[in-house]
Amino acid sequence: MSTFRIGNLLSLFALAFLLSACDSSVGTSSNPDLGGDDSGYTGPSARTEAIRSFELNFWKPLRDQGLCVQCHENGPAPSLFVNNGDVNMAYSEAIGNANLQDPPNSEFVNRVGGGHNCWLTDLNQCANLMTTMIQNWASGANVNSARLITLVPPTHRPPGEAKSFPPTATTPGNNGATFANTVHEILIGTATPPPITGNNCQGCHEETANPLPIAPFFANDDVNSAYEAAKSKMNIDDPVSSRFVVRLGSEFHNCWTTDCGTYPPVGTTSDAGRMMQAIQTFADGIQPTPVDTNLLTSMALTIATDGIVAAGGLRHESNQFALWEFATGTGPTAFDDSAIPPAMDLALLGAVSWLPGGYGLEFSGGQAQATTGDSSKAHTFIQSTGEYAIEAWVIPANVTQEDANIVSYSGG
Hints:
The protein is an alpha+beta fold. The protein has helices spanning 49-64, 69-72, 87-94, 107-113, 123-140, 183-188, 223-230, 243-249, 271-284, 303-306, 376-385, and strands at residues 4-12, 18-20, 322-324, 333-334, 346-349, 352-354, 360-363, 367-369, 390-396, 407-408. It is built from eleven helices and ten strands. The strands form two sheets. Strands 1, 3, 6, 7 and 9 form a five-stranded antiparallel sheet that branches. The chain has a five-stranded antiparallel sheet with strand order 4-5-8-2-10, with no helix packed on it. Helix 1 packs across helix 3 and helix 1 runs antiparallel to helix 5 (123-140). The radius of gyration is 25 Å and the shape is elongated.
């Protein structure tokens, strides 16, 4: 088994339908020879390049998937932006509801994101797909700013006091708690009463683990090196949101008893509850550091709410037909954000988890795979051009493996 992370963006100009951990033993599903079909449109041709881009990237995906057609093809809604008789008339109806300079702020996006006839169970994903369709439309119409990063002024927040990690794993807080006598004891299985039966975190997250050490090494016997590796997994301002706690209570990762717990944890007897309590005890002993009033300070930002998602900028995206931005951050599916039907959504199978905050997956032996039927569009596009390109942003968890598949579009 091995581990890697993939994110922030996976963009396939002709699709890889399987993502898996670096393990040649992971199986795949065979794909039959599938092709596309004719559009069936018999109305007048698009009069301009902009209308042609609208037709290919917005009108056709909506019409082919039967989205919005019940009301917006022939009525009763007044705006007939999927008019099947004349794409030019459909364009004139649609352009007033699309912001080609700033697609996420289009009325179309606001409507489906607010719950108006969203065709999926996730409103955010409907909004994402609608945004992508408008971005593709704008890109084909030579609106260069469609995928540029949009800078939005953040909320002004004065900096306040904050907790900082103690300098060492054995530095006591005001209650005598240290990382060594709280969290580390659970990670290595020496807490009282013993929380571990059989294996523990040292089976993987120790530098001497057998057969394959997996970073980060927060379960090292050397408490100070373990402490450095564990800091990013603990939230001392909000222990319940610590990655250690979420991993146990929500993702049920390598629980050491029969009671992983829930997320957020209820009580302190479950594995997630005991971990949360250990982090809470450790954090309670840390005194917040106030801001020195003699300093000249600027306003504060938070990563969780003030970050700006990287956009495509001037990257070549006009021919991509499958795109995974991993924006959902939760659930069993990584949605295809390309808005080119059929959606090649990836089912998360086995040991796969979302990175904190989304925009990436972590594989520890599992895989993310599209169905054979959904993958038919890969065959269609590749057959029409005879070529394809795959792009993946990957962070390896180890550099010792060779001859292992990470991303593939294949029939076996």
